[in-house]
Design goal:
Elements (H helix, E strand, L loop, with lengths): L2 E10 L4 E8 L5 E3 L3 E3 L5 E2 L6 E4 L5 H5 L2 E6 L6 E11 L19 E2 L2
Parallel strand pairs: 7-9
Antiparallel strand pairs: 1-5, 1-6, 1-8, 2-3, 2-4, 2-7
Length: 113
């Protein structure tokens, strides 16, 4: 596996606010992404620069499966809204010679904390 990419569909309440996406790894350590602006009552999917990539090249599928994803509010007194939160995993398929009794399946990520 190579990279985990987290992104979302977001909005704010009656005023503009800021938030960041967050990934908790298999050990429970949180990594916060870049802060982005939520526009008042306008739904949008985050742009490429607002995604949160995470290197998983040293992780096994079962370890990645224990990751959690979520968000961190960066401004107060503004309602932040997420209608969808996605985690995409890019991986390289194992060769037949490297498999020991089974294929590699893509990991699924649980929405977290």
């Amino acid at each position: 596996m190579k990279v985990l990419d987290v992104y979302a569909r977001v909005s704010a309440s009656a005023s503009t606010g800021n938030m960041a996406l967050k990934i908790w790894d298999d050990g429970g350590t949180g990594t916060e992404g870049t802060s982005f602006v939520l526009n008042s009552s306008t739904w949008r999917i985050l742009t490429g620069s607002e995604h949160q990539p995470f290197d998983i090249s040293t992780k096994t599928p079962s370890l990645v499966n224990s990751f959690s994803i979520g968000n961190k509010a960066k401004s107060v007194n503004v309602e932040k809204r997420i209608s969808a939160l996605w985690a995409n995993v890019e991986w390289i398929e194992a060769t037949a010679a490297s498999l020991s009794g089974g294929g590699m399946n893509p990991a699924t990520i649980g929405v977290g904390q």
